[in-house]
Amino acid sequence: MMKKLSIVLYVVLFLAVAGLYCMHFSGNKKSKKGETSVNVAGSPAQGIAYINIDTVIFKFDMFLDRRNDLMAKQKNAEAELNSKGTAYQKGANDYQDKVNKGLVTRATAAQIEQSLVQQQQELVSLRDKLQSNLVEEEQVMNRQILEYITKFLEENRVDYNYQYILGKSFGSVVLYGDNALDITQKVLDAINKKYKQEKK
Predict the structure, then answer these.
(1) What DSSP letter does each residue of 67-91 carry, written as one string?
(2) Domain limits, the chain
(3) pLDDT digits (tens, 9 = 90+) for 77-90
(4) Is 0.85 topped by the overall pTM?
(5) Dihedral angle at the C-alpha atoms of 71, 76, 79, 81, nearest 10 degrees?
């Protein structure tokens, strides 16, 4: 079973991207003294809101689809590894049986043993390769999901009308947030709707 995705990684990446977003869209535009900050639509900016990043990610249909794809790949990788491992074990048992019964010469036994050692090394190499590929795919998946959410917030910033949207999660730098500032469900509903339309 695939281990739980790293929540800390989500938080760090999301806050980093959110920080860049805030700097780009609001940090470089200092209001003159006496002026009120306004958004593109012309209404006063509402300041800060937050989303529960764990909820948004783990209930996002894209994450569920990508996770299922990744788990299917992991299952196939395990099946391939188990198949080759079973073949190796069968060969090793057959070799041991023949040696015990004296059915092969020492030269032949040495050749078989060398072949088994090579198979074992190939199995270890295959295991490491499959594991590395899965870890890389998981990391790419995480970044793609965070990029999708961040891009959505950027493209719809007029609708949300906030200067900052923070990512709140257990252990994150946002330790408390007033429920009135929580737009988690609003964002989750919106990105799921957009994703479902794109899938069609």
Answers:
(1) HHHHHHHHHHHHHHHHHHHHHHHHH
(2) 8-199
(3) 999 999 999 999 99
(4) no
(5) -100
Q: How far apart are CA 53 and CA 169, in angstroms?
A: 6
Question: How far is residue 62's CA from residue 116's CA, in Å, rounded to a whole number?
Answer: 44
Task: Give the Cα separation of 144 and 148 in Å (integer).
Answer: 6
Collapsing DSSP states into helix, strand and coil, what is residue 51? strand
Instruction: Say how far apart CA 99 and CA 140 lie, in whole Å.
Output: 49
Structure tokens at 140: 């790419």
* Torsion sign, CA atoms 51, 54, 56, 57: positive
Residue 48 is inside which H or E element, if any?
strand 48-52
Which residue has 């999901």 as its token pair? Answer: 145
Token pair recorded at residue 161: 């009308």
Q: Give me the sign of the Cα torsion angle 163, 165, 171, 176.
A: positive
**Where residue 200 falls among pLDDT bands split at 50, 70, 90?**
confident
- According to DSSP, the residues that pair with 173 across neighbouring strands are none
14 half-sphere exposure, CB direction, 13 A CA radius: 30
Q: Hey, what are 145's tokens? A: 């999901």
